[in-house]
Amino acid sequence: MEPAPHRPARRRLLTGAAALAASAALTPLAAASTAAAPHRHTPPGGAYPPVHWVPANRANFTAADRPARYPVERVVVHVTQETYPDTLKLFQDPAHKAAAHYVVRSADGHIAQCVRERDVAWHAGNWNYNTRSIGIEHEGWIDDPTWFTDPLYTQSALLTAAICDRYGIPRDREHIIGHVEVPGTDHTDPGEFWDWARYLQLVNEVSWQHPEDPVRRHDGRSAGVRIPDTSGS
């Protein structure tokens, strides 16, 4: 069940086996979306778009060796139902038992990486989907599209494009899905206001030559170029 319109409530983030419920008050949009994340070093190997490494507690993900152990086949789009800083705090709480690989801030598209891509983040509420996907959280509430800003769409799409190139994931709606589409979930994010047509267009417009040089795509297919590694070492 989603919160009543314009009355945001903390979203229940699911592990592969259980759901935890909590509640929190909404802070003002301007202050919340511009609050700085804790300063951390960039994950080993570098990343593009630039990210801050804000590690989740080890109790909120499973260490793994992907894609050797599990193939990475999908990107799952989430909406936090929390502010950006509060989401990071939740992922660092060992009692929370959930985390996503990335969190994108609304105001400027700033990205925090919380779980290395090689590890299994507990984000989808379905163990099979957890093992075979990358989870990206987006700051905001599903019933308020003002949180889905141009920078948020743009930076998230750049990140998803890099992930798709890295693992050979097709850039389509079968493989880039919402949390609502995960079997067994009771979530509805990213919700009706998430602009899928715009997002997929942005994802399909870029590919990577090296970490600082995204190039425009015109054929809608993977260009097979080298991309940065945010999976860690």
From TrEMBL:
Residues 1-32 form the signal peptide. One of its GO terms (molecular function) is N-acetylmuramoyl-L-alanine amidase activity. Residues 211-221 have a biased composition (Basic and acidic residues). Residues 211-233 are annotated as: Disordered. It is an enzyme of class 3 (hydrolase). PANTHER family: N-ACETYLMURAMOYL-L-ALANINE AMIDASE AMID. This is N-acetylmuramoyl-L-alanine amidase.
